[in-house]
Write the structure tokens for this entry.
Amino acid sequence: MTTKSAAKKKNGFRKFWKLGIEEYNTQNFDIGPDGELIVREGNYQYNIFDIIKKYGTSTEIVFPTVIENRVRDLIETFNAYIKVLGYKGKFFYHYAMKANQTKEFVLPAVAEGANLDVASANELFLVKRMIEQDKFNAKIRVICNGPKTEKYISLIEELKTKGLVVIPIIEDYKELERMDKFKGEVGIRVNLDIKVQAHWDKKFNRYGFTEEELLKIGKVRNLSTLHYHISKQIESVQGFVKPLKRALALYAKMKEKNPQLDTLDIGGGAGVPFEKKKHFYTGRSLVQQIVKTAKKECDKLQIRHPNLIVEWGSYVAAPAQVTIYKILTQKDVGNKGNVKWYVVDGSFMNDLIDTWAIHQKWHVIPINHMNTKKLDKVWLAGSSCDSDDKYTAGGDSILLPRLDELDELYIALLDTGAYQDSLASHHCLLSSPAKLIAQNGEIKVARKREAPEEVGKLFGW
Ligand SMILES: *Cc1c(COP(=O)(O)O)cnc(C)c1O
């Protein structure tokens, strides 16, 4: 075969598995000469199959560079549009720690200039740890969401005295009363009367005040920030533009009674292209529309452009991790044409709980035999005894290399970096995957695959 046709063939497979495409977060992924998954980090590269042969499965691999790049890009893109469009407010990125609190996620984000958004006293405690270890500049800004227990509030006050900008977000009347005694700036959360196309579109939202309540409250002591959070995985740019317009109208009214109000925090929700659909918005187009809308609306309302905060968690964290399993065996699904079960050596209910909890879809690819044309339609089954422990791509099916003629097959689920770790569990006492960190061309073990003794310990044995 000539080199040219070999390259063409490789391109075909790369396209088939949707690798090397920025819109799908696979720009660093490629296929090696032997049909193995390659992940690039600048001029370093990792042969994922070789890594897995060494460390076994089930395994998660984290790429901190992905986090660094995404945070840097996000901040640069916002600042670029702010400049180009003549927007007068500043931009602050706050990494929503709840998306992934693992050290290897949080520190690279902070290193690239991320501020933080914490959801609980325990997450704020991690911030205290970082400060104590001199891990970062005490000028970092921290938004505090979630119910403010006394413990949480005293930690907020403690960190404030250390010089951090810590902004508690008031979510109910009790907190409003309590925060009247707080010495620093505060934010307040509105539950906007609006629906967008998104994963979480619940009729009843228990977070924050209604718009009506906020207008009735009027003046809030030391109020700097108006905050809202609509949903996760917002499906379209309109899902950001609509709430932003509504929030700015409210912001303008609130500013009359609260002249020191100067910041709008639009929360999380930037989506991850899990489903590899065409026409998923890019981060760039989203940022452009946000800044453009903010400018246009403020000019119409004749108010000063507020500083803008986004708390995008999944957007930064999801693409930074892949989860890898070995296919243990296959079975016929029965009553489903020629679809086969592929049983993996891990568990969707334990390791990727959103598969089960919110019917999350994933981009699934093989990590060896990527250049075979013999494929089967499959459903994936986890190793627990639970009939819900499966991934069927929403009842559809996934194409993967035909197992019959292969010595062994490993698969990767992409974009698994957000939320799955802190939600992980131990159904059937299966071990959690090992966690590897791939950085600067080297592999570090951040967490070994759990031994029986360790799992038993969690249950008092
Ligand atoms: C969960 C959450 C976020 C992060 O949401 P993503 O969808 O991961 O971007 C941000 N802000 C608040 C208040 C949240 O509850």
The chain has 15 helices and 21 strands. The pocket of pyridoxal-5'-phosphate is lined by residues 96, 98-99, 117, 145, 229, 232, 267-270, 311-315, 418 (CB under 6 Å). The mean pLDDT is 94.
